[in-house]
Write a structure and sequence with these properties.
Chain lengths: ~290, ~290, ~290, ~290, ~290, ~290
């Protein structure tokens, strides 16, 4: 069950409102690298967690923290949009083509649809999409999904930090960047605890690797038509990272044959000519 | 800022796991009538709220409660999917065509993508979409969006209640139905406090109704070619609900003219024939 | 069955074409508050209507009127984009960075994809989405969906009205604002006719309220950790709006227990460590 | 402006309601091959039409007819779902696993979300998407979009016709199949009138073909590594269909060079190692 | 199986990087008229092809060529974005409102999400959508889908060509325009080989036209309330294009009746008033 | 530039066609864990790669290999759907309710939309979405995105392997599982080469960690209201994984204050009552 305190997790201060920066912040709210995604991802992983409960507990804690981050960013958007009140919107109705296009930099829906508030969408107004919420039921795969989310999330936050000179916004983003630092480390700690790379991989480690053709497990397949020899990279020779094989280098060759599909069944209503081997346009007798 | 307790808001008990019912429950999680939508909707309305803070406070409270509802439903999905372990998935690999199609009733991604856990999607696996989160900046419009969400949400919950005979699930759904009862009343209470129908409407009530042609404000426009006379319905005669006019009945007639657009500009690379008044295929001289 | 007249329902006149305003108008065409949504929503409600036919008839009339509104707005977009012909597009290829960014304010797809015409998309180019079409089969829930759509739609229209100084556009928008006034009243008239708040709520009113735990029906659940006493708001004391109970105020407490899910089934291919109670990375015997 | 008659364009009769067939019909309503798409496509093409008005007039006529087709199909869905009332939904709550999975064949949202009515979605419940509405501003391109829509639409309709034995449904689908026949011919008639293949192509025919390297205009580029000789197909030799060139056959060869991008700019916050030519993990001095 | 050469199919050269043009190029990558769509469309048609294998072979060749086009355009986006490094991004943090809005013309995600590289999205940042990939199983329908894709694609390419003065970009686009010329011809060549219009139509030609009411096959249905006489257009008189009938002109009339749906079933939880013929709000006895 | 061989990379053999398994395979084609996603992800990363070219080269190789995997899976879908020809589709038109629901297990669009071929969609028919293609411009973040994609991809492939008893399908899936093993190792090898966890993290490692408040970098923030002491987990004490700090445990406390937004601006057309501090419904003087 969830509770709240009316204060934010960290200070949200906007010294000089900037409606265009409000648009950029939306990427951190409703974008694929954003906070709604990690919030729901950690919570759904917690709610579906099967296995040691300490991981469920941790996911629930950090998922809850992320709601507070959404709150901070939405507040920041609303405060930045206050810069639109005396300025940008008035300018929409002026004849001056130069100032008018500021609307191009601002998200027009921040005025039209929300009256100066945040949306569950990214910096281009593309809505948040639930498909981004990854909870696979495999703990290690989920941890990688989380490290990836915090890595692209921290990259985004640093770029946002670089896109403003507002001290309040820089301070808030520094806090979020620090939290992303922690969260990267946190999910990596689970992977370490699970035994590290050699134990964790290949994910899932519960599928018997003795199934299937073993020669493809650690072979770098080159599709390059220049046909160079083994370039001796880390991924084409030496021990595999999971410690269970040796990297090799092979030139890709087709091992299968040319696919042969049956002719169309009559009920699929293909063209009649598809039912004749030579593709001529004589009517197939069987169809008449 | 947000906090949690590891216990759920209300008991989640599944007496007889049912993977097909798990699929139906998804509609209440990630569907347009579902809990992710109301949760984010109330929170975004709170975070963007401008005006008396008591409304912001209330939205924050109920938005927080809705996270607890998502949690309950996701837990219910996970518990219902445990019915798949010994049965449904084994049956996938059997040759019996009759039992096999149970997979059709179950969402296959509940096995393939989550390993028996909930998703941020609806009963057809269509992902949650952030566009459903309505926070317009107009308090009365938002209250109607909330009444509507709780009304379609309660209708959904009663249909789910009717779709199971599991006592635990019926009990949990009864609780959610009761909360929807409260929430409908709660948003209506705001509308009452704002002055009721006569004061609230037309929304927004801050736009001067003296703008524009007044004769269209309360006219029921009939597009029916049978051209019946005023049927004397509540919406075609008598005082308007907002108390600011009188309903009338008119037969729709075009008041505008046939639109005339300019010919294509050359840079738009239309067909050359579009640039000739008669549509003939002579090459326009100006294009050569 | 449907018919048309080549003239528009109301005059569509653009005195000074403005390609940036064309972008804003898209929100009223293909946005969630827009006319495609209400058009399809009323028509789908009509086509699925079960119950007194007078409601079906009304929905069909107004759904048909909304097609005429889409037509007006699309025509307005096309006319506004004519301002792009001699100016904006030429400027794209100039070196002047100041005039060039007008393209930022215009939707680039209005040139690239349509050659100066409207799209079935919102002001950010996000396509219309059929999930917004609400037709629940419950008449009262649908009426609220319609009041909500006309309320956010009228808010949008007033903001658009405020975003232009073109007399033709202001006139057209005033007409649409007036129609939204009528339509809000119209759906409210149905709710009045259904008996008003006390009869209509809780929606659906056909589900027996005697089912389930009654103490949650009218309780405001506070999730605020400050634990204030009952603030005495309209939604925490006094009679409920539906007249069927008394509002109360309670501090949220978890009534459920901590969820316990079964360990992963082997066929879900979780990590092996998930199948051990202590989360260590010893291989579970049962998996070997 | 638009008007309606309460009767449908053609008889909609369901002799034996079938909720599973209702699901299949959804593809013809809200799928990419469906009627909402063609309806909006023709209307948007009409409303943006620039050029001879007779094409605008025709698009308006047929776009209006398509609304009537959506109406027929939605009515058919609602009537087929009546087969769910006494049977399918009751069975949801029975313990019999065999009959229960009928829900798998029915769209569960036809009960949960609409209470036995149609949705603006396809046969899998995926919502209609406005991006499918093609109106390019080029008349010939649009006509091909229309022929394509009516061709995939007629293929769909014949497959639906084959999926039912209900005489009423077969009759209604035969009518729709006949209309698709007409509409295919209708759009082809415009292409004929525009001068036929030799005049119409390449689309757009208003772009000067003298621009750019002419040797690629009619060359079939083979990417097949078997390096066969010209197989002598219709598209590798002989006159081109547009009459403006001669088909040739060439083996694909890279004419460009290997792309060279600049190193990352510091503001993009790539990894430091990306800024070093050798990829080693020494910290770049310039970053400290 | 697929292979690659590190060089591009044709030269990709950007003489003067332009981050705003990079945004426009996205339409040709991830838009509905773009190269990801045609690439996947031709490959999916090939992989599902049933009928003469020469068509499968051709689709595979051209589908493979299109991957090379995506590569060229993505490279062009990355090169154009290099113009953002020294300029645009620095300007984001300046106080000058005039230069700042260049960000409005650039896609902000080109900095925030990719660090100056292409995305699988259109010019508004709307993601590529797999629903655009048409592979119907009917060869003629698919060929029209391909002609349509290459026609709208070539229209887009010419508009892009017109939107830049960069010689390198103009050269690359001229190459792509030439390939679209070939591809239009190529798919038309299949239609010719299949027998041309009279043999190919109506698509599918394997459905017996004797089914259903023949009078609707070639009738132009007018929905225009002006009720003009047959205007004598190509599509209202004379032989049909498929040679199988004669065009006629008819005024649309409803041939069906007003739909009658059953009242709601109790399990759908409609409002009680819907179950009463007169719509009054007396409680239906059967519900108590 | 890209080339092809008509043979597949590995044998695709279906011993006993199974249209329901065809539906499951779609998840591996167009789902978020599927092959279109990794194919485009690696190629977009290659095309935007800035930094050492050996990484670009590798991404290009493996991205090209993934096209071959899409091909194999699409072929497998087409072959499995041949099981529908003599059986499932015939059964659609039979009266037997038991066999009929097989259609529920099959994707109906595999017949209706493709005539027995694969689609660019997932197992529920939800279209592939370009937003899943992650190419951040940060090499380490991208490698984690790739490890994550191959981990969830391999989990999916093992579940598919478990869902069939067809020897041909099991063989093909074993090959794909082996390739996922290699690809996991391959991306991990890059991370090792970049210096391993201590050098790579926090991502991006080019942002100066001295910015901002350092105490939040390695603090586990607990939101649990039970307020337990430091549980001594790997992520709440001891050295951080990146070797740059020490994990700590803190109880979450709000460090910010309650947000205060300005009242609505008049141009946003909120309700008048929102502009009054006490929320009463007296008309604000300033608005009259």
């Amino acid at each position: 069950m969830f509770f709240h305190d009316k204060r934010t997790q960290y200070t949200v201060r906007v010294d000089k409102p900037d409606p265009q920066f409000a648009r950029l912040l939306q990427q951190a709210i409703g974008g694929i690298e954003g906070e709604i995604r990690v919030c729901l991802q950690y919570l759904f992983q917690a709610w579906g967690n099967r296995g040691p409960t300490k991981y469920r507990d941790m996911l629930l804690e950090t998922g809850t923290e992320e709601i507070s981050h959404i709150e901070m960013l939405c507040t920041a958007v609303a405060l930045n949009l206050e810069g639109a009140s005396g300025g940008v919107i008035d300018q929409i109705v002026t004849a001056n083509p130069v100032v008018k296009e500021i609307m191009g930099g601002m998200d027009p829906r921040h005025y039209l649809s929300t009256g100066l508030a945040a949306m569950a969408a990214d910096a281009n107004g593309v809505p948040f999409n639930g498909s981004w919420v990854v909870a696979s039921g495999n703990l290690a795969a989920d941890m990688y999904a989380n490290v990836m989310a915090e890595s692209t999330g921290r990259v985004l936050a640093t770029r946002l930090w670089n896109s403003t000179e507002d001290p309040g916004m820089k301070d808030m983003l520094s806090f979020l960047i620090a939290r992303d630092t922690m969260h990267q480390n946190q999910w990596l700690a689970v992977l370490e605890e699970l035994g590290g790379l050699k134990s964790v991989h290949p994910i899932p480690n519960s599928f018997p690797q003795t199934e299937g053709p073993s020669e493809f497990n650690y072979a770098f397949v080159s599709t390059n038509l220049d046909h160079p020899e083994n370039p001796g990279t880390r991924w084409s020779q030496g021990p595999s990272i999971d410690g269970k094989g040796e990297f090799t280098f092979v030139h890709g060759v087709p091992l299968g044959s040319e696919p042969k599909l049956s002719p169309p069944i009559p009920e699929a209503y293909a063209q009649m000519e598809q039912m004749k081997p030579d593709g001529t346009n004589n009517i197939a007798d069987s169809l008449l």
